[in-house]
Amino acid sequence: MNPALQDRVLRRIESRADELVELTRELIRFPTVNPPGDAYEPCARFVGERLRARGFEVSYVRAEGTPGDSDRWPRINVIARHAASRPGPCVHFNGHLDVVTTGEGWSVGPFAAVVREGRIYGRGACDMKAGLAAAIVAVESLIEEGADLPGALEISGTVDEESGGYGGVHYLAERGWFSRPRVDHVIIPEPLNVDRVCIGHRGVWWAEVQTHGRIAHGSMPFLGDCAIRHMHAVIERFERELFPAMARRHTAMPVVPQGARQSTLNLNSIHGGAAEQEQGFPSPCVPDSCRLIIDRRFLIEESIEQVKGEVRGILDALARERPGFRYTLRELFEVLPSMADPNGPVARSTAAAVQRILGRAPQFVCSPGTYDQKHIDRIGRLKECIAYGPGILDLAHQPDEYVVIDDMIAASKVMALSAGSLLTGSA
Questions:
Q1: Quick one: three-class SS letters along 60-113?
Q2: 51 and 168 share one domain
Q3: 177: CATH
Q4: Which of 279, 302, 335 finishes a domain?
Q5: Residue 209 and residue 197 share a domain
């Protein structure tokens, strides 16, 4: 874009600051909690109808048959496209509509979208409805001021990112919505901080370990075989062998925060024996089953085969060494690490825009957790994908989640400049 057009776009975004705040608040007020997937359709249609009124071609895609999809909680995604009269690349902004559960500890209503001291509070304010709103205003402003730009601009509001993205970007990527020649560059407004450009993420492997025992009367445990004790042996071996081994591995990926530059394992949940109950007493039984969910985050330098082999090796060793030890390992899902080229057009154009708007060079980072870039990379086979948004990473999923209004305005300007640069081939 020429400097005069850039200046006009930036002034237009500044003039629409109040509109950006109100759009963010309207999005927060949709309680799109996942699970189960509340308010997906009304939120998607709100976004779609706004963009249709501004000249976008709008499609609604239900991810039928995906986990959680039902007539009560349909997985509805919205994709809006604005094509210019001249051919050129397509820049796509992808935001997820779903938010996590609210939890305890809020001082304001989680969906009240309270504005206070230059911030908007609410579940999803940071992760990532402010980012979606900033992208919408950026694209609208760019179209209004740059009618002669070539190519196409797209905005999508997708679902289920918080539970793996299978009803959202995964489903759409399988059907060509995130592949060339339809799309060339993708920016995802995840909350990685307004002065950072996120180029990728670590890998993840989730699995369920189940240890098996034999039920017996609790007064005679020697007649049974306690599955919880077997699970204790698993965790003790993790503590003694796996955790120290992971702590010695570090990555060259610029993962933030610093502690995530090593391999990690979270013991996500554990349950064994009698079901939990609020009243009365459990029956006196030796538990014949114990289940542990593990969340293993791994580095680009590690292979998925190594990650799985370490866990299975510990379990197999226990089966050889510990009397009565039996286990079942059930894999839940896996995602390989992903990293875009920091010198590629989408990363370079976004970094240049951050420099222009904030007056300082951004930090290139990778996310400790995964986000929908994984599907765009692996399924859509589109490497030109980064994350950039106004939210503060540490606030995601917290009570009293908020976004700074000035950061939203700055991020919207960055997105507009980056998209304009990509459309004109000046990145």
A1: EEECCCCCCCCCCCCCEEEEEEEECCCCCCEEEEEEECCECCCCCCCCCCCCCC
A2: yes
A3: 3.40.630.10
A4: 335
A5: no
Cα separation of 222 and 68, whole Å?
43
Closest listed residue to residue 350, CA positions, set 209, 214, 200, 199: 199
Strand order in the sheet with 326-335: 264-272, 289-298, 203-212, 326-335
Question: SS3 helix, strand, coil % of the chain, rounded to 5?
Answer: 35, 25, 40
Helix and strand numbers, DSSP H then E, in the chain? 11, 16
Tell me the residue type at 407.
D
State residue 266 phi and psi, 5-degree precision. -110, 130
Whether residue 157 sits in one domain with residue 291: no
- Determine the structural domain holding residue 299 and report its residue range: 203-335
Q: Same structural domain for residues 177 and 216?
A: no
Q: What is the pLDDT of residues 274-327, one digit of tens each?
A: 887 778 888 999 999 999 999 999 999 999 999 999 999 999 999 999 999 999
Terminal alpha carbon distance of the chain: 10
Domain containing residue 322: CATH number: 3.30.70.360
Q: What SS3 string covers 119-141?
A: EEECCCHHHHHHHHHHHHHHHHH
* Same domain flag for 43 and 99: yes
Q: Could you give phi then psi for residue 136, rounded to 5 degrees?
A: -60, -50
Size of the chain, expressed as the number of residues it contains = 427
Task: Please give the mean pLDDT across all residues of the chain.
Answer: 96
pLDDT, tens digit, 9 for 90 and up, residues 45-54 = 999 999 999 9
Helix (H) or strand (E) holding 265: strand 264-272
